[in-house]
Amino acid sequence: MRIVADENIPLLDSFFGDIGEIDRVSGRAMSAADVQNADILLVRSVTRVNQALLEGSRVRFVGTCTIGTDHVDQQWLASSGIAFAAAPGCNANSVVEYVMSVISLHAERRGVADWTKLSVGIVGAGNVGGELAHKLERLDFDVLCCDPPRAEREGDDGQKFVSLEEVMACDVVTLHTPLTREGEHDTLHLFGPERLSALREHQLLINTSRGEVIDSSALLARLDEPNAPTVVLDVWEHEPRIHSELLDRVWLATPHIAGYSLEGKVQGSEMVYQALSRCLGLPARKKAGQFLPEPALAKLSFTSAAEEMDSANIAMRSCYDPRRDDARMRLAMSLPAEERGPAFDRLRRDYPVRREFSSVKIQLKGTSKSMQDTFRALGFKLKL
Ligand SMILES: NC(=O)C1=CN([C@@H]2O[C@H](COP(=O)(O)OP(=O)(O)OC[C@H]3O[C@@H](n4cnc5c(N)ncnc54)[C@H](O)[C@@H]3O)[C@@H](O)[C@H]2O)C=CC1
Ligand SMILES: O=C(O)C(=O)[C@H](O)COP(=O)(O)O
């Protein structure tokens, strides 16, 4: 069995080595010639998987080790009898931790002593948005969610959803929809000139969904106007060749790495390994957890002298500080124009190991119940 795989998929040998012979290729540059003699194709989000790539090949299974599937023509795969699997939810927690870290930095920057006083509006309440809402509610934030497809499916029996306009009145507006180009609720340029003009100076707009959910020319124009909102972008139109003027105008800019915790990436590989094993009728005994190394930061300790929010900020930022990704991104994007695309991809290929909050044990000595609840809600393990 011949497997062609994006070289950036972690643990290829560990998960897939005994299923077939693996050829590693660049996901971004993958061509029809690369996959011609493959039986199995494993990708991440940067490979367009469609008729042009696969027609005439032997490929019978395609797996993407990502949540998003907008790069895959699933209709064509189904009509060609090619099995397909994605990794829903694999890196949802990583994105949630990115957003929580951004919100905590924003609160500090704005002089908001209690970050839970910021209302948060979530657009798209699936695996990422739903988990984010859950964590924020546990922390006592006011959260509003807009998800018309879920609202229609679940009716009055489900969770309460509000309109996009209501969500857009929140202090923080964060986008977690898939990129869809057709249908009643398509999201391509969901945030165009009109919606962007409704956002005000005190508001924070975060996009970790797909770049094309925001019209970047309209955003650029809006950011040049008075009373523009603060913007954080992890995803960009036309990656890896991003709009560098936009980069100059956003507060935090990161190279599509919100989902890049080690846990998230390895779970993506595991979920596709499970799906492929099912498809081939093989036992699937390997688990992501067995391959995760010991974290560099294993323990943090706070005493009764620790202040709740300061301690939570220290803990979150010791695990993950988006400002470091922003600094690396700005440095890379200061290269000459023709070198920026490859530099964007290098930032992603060579991404440093980032562990999730759950990898750190927090020791709390004589601290309040409220402080313990905060750490638990953030996802840290407690050692009392
Ligand atoms: N920046 C990054 O590193 C990452 C980005 N992503 C992106 O985040 C997206 C969301 O991920 P999940 O939550 O796991 O997906 P999901 O499929 O579980 O949830 C998406 C939700 O958006 C809702 N939705 C669809 N159209 C909508 C609209 N017009 N308005 C409001 N809600 C709408 C859906 O009903 C669904 O509940 C992915 O599709 C992917 O594009 C995912 C992982 C990492
Ligand atoms: O899972 C998704 O969806 C994502 O956006 C991934 O985190 C993107 O990672 P790559 O596939 O581009 O490595």
Describe the structure.
By secondary structure, this protein is α/β, with parallel strands linked by helices. It folds into 3 domains: 2-86 and 261-291, NAD(P)-binding Rossmann-like Domain (Rossmann fold, 3-Layer(aba) Sandwich), CATH 3.40.50.720; 92-253, Rossmann fold, CATH 3.40.50.720; 299-336 and 349-383, Erythronate-4-phosphate dehydrogenase, dimerisation domain (Ribosomal Protein S8, Chain: A, domain 1). It contains 16 helices and 14 strands. Strands 7-6-8-9-10-11 form a 6-stranded parallel β-sheet. Helix 9 links the parallel strand 8 and strand 9. Helix 13 (308-319) runs parallel beside helix 16 (369-378). The mean pLDDT is 97. It binds 1,4-dihydronicotinamide adenine dinucleotide and the ligand O=C(O)C(=O)[C@H](O)COP(=O)(O)O. The site of ligand LXYGBJRG has 10 residues, from loops. Its EC number is 1.1.1.290. Keywords: Cytoplasm, NAD, Oxidoreductase, Pyridoxine biosynthesis. Residues 30-277 form the D-isomer specific 2-hydroxyacid dehydrogenase catalytic domain.
